[in-house]
Design brief:
Distance between the termini: 24 Å
Helix content: 40-55%
Order of helices and strands: HHHHHHHHHEEEEHHEE
Structural class: alpha+beta
Shape: elongated
Length: 346
Amino acid sequence: MINTKTLEKLDWPLLTSHLVNKTQTFEGKERAASILPELTQRAIESQWELTLQLKEAFSYGATPFSFRTILPIKDTLRCAMIGQLLDQDNLLNLRNILRTTKDFSDYARTSTLKTNKTIAYFDRKITPLRPLLDLFEQTFDQDGNLLDEASFELKRIRIAKNSIARQIEGRIKHLLQKNTNLAKYLQDDYFTKRNDRYVVPIKIDGNGRVDGVVVDTSSSGLTIFVEPTAIRPLNDDLIQLLSEERIEILKILLDVSKKIASHENELAQNYEALIDLDYITAHALLAREWNAQPVAIVSEPVIDLKNARHPLLYKGEVPPVANDICLYPHQHMLMISGPNAGGKTV
């Protein structure tokens, strides 16, 4: 069991903060912040193998993979699996994850990285799900709102809505032009909406100047909102279309949620693989920055480090003083001595 107080004395939290700064994803940062020393040879060497392959690629000029903003997906997938409709934020996050998996698939096939073993390892773990991404791109705009082209019926409804809105606005303009004495009773805007119905905002002392029904008043009570009789039938048609639009939107979102649920396993695996990739990439970037190297791990109680440096003192162009540190089985003590800035800190 690793003693966390001992790690604090060794400045472990400060060390992990450097790793956190190299990560790009929310969970990647959490994982880097909570990392503890691995104590099994197999686990150490397995991670080294992945890290060193990327470090070498970056050292030869390869560009690290750039992540989009992706957030945890577990709760989103659980909602989709039980048939709940996903909200806008969840849908945007899912699209970002789908786009990121596609980006990585393209990245893995670039000429400088297609033979890299670490990139190939993650490429095997990630399924791009391009048809699902295509569905998202055809259904939602950049802000997560439904596009008109999301379905034939939605497009028809929205065209009809826009047509009726233009007719209503035209009739209101005509009404106001006929009633020239009404202008002094109007508020700044000559029409607005209340409860999805077009109305004319009139000062309270102009009540009765427009043939219609008062549908609302302002919070101050100084303005009344009148629905002119001439546009009431069109307002009724508009309300009907708004109801049809809401029903069609629910149908589309339900269909998208079902598609997401059908790919629950692949989405979960993709997300975990992306977090792993972010985590390993951070290790590789830090290893390159600090010129970190692996050591040979042996089963005997031996320490034999060549040119060892304290990582937290590494400044790139001004590296810390390196030292050889050796301690063999027949030795029971290591004396550390020397001048200031002589390399004792390692």
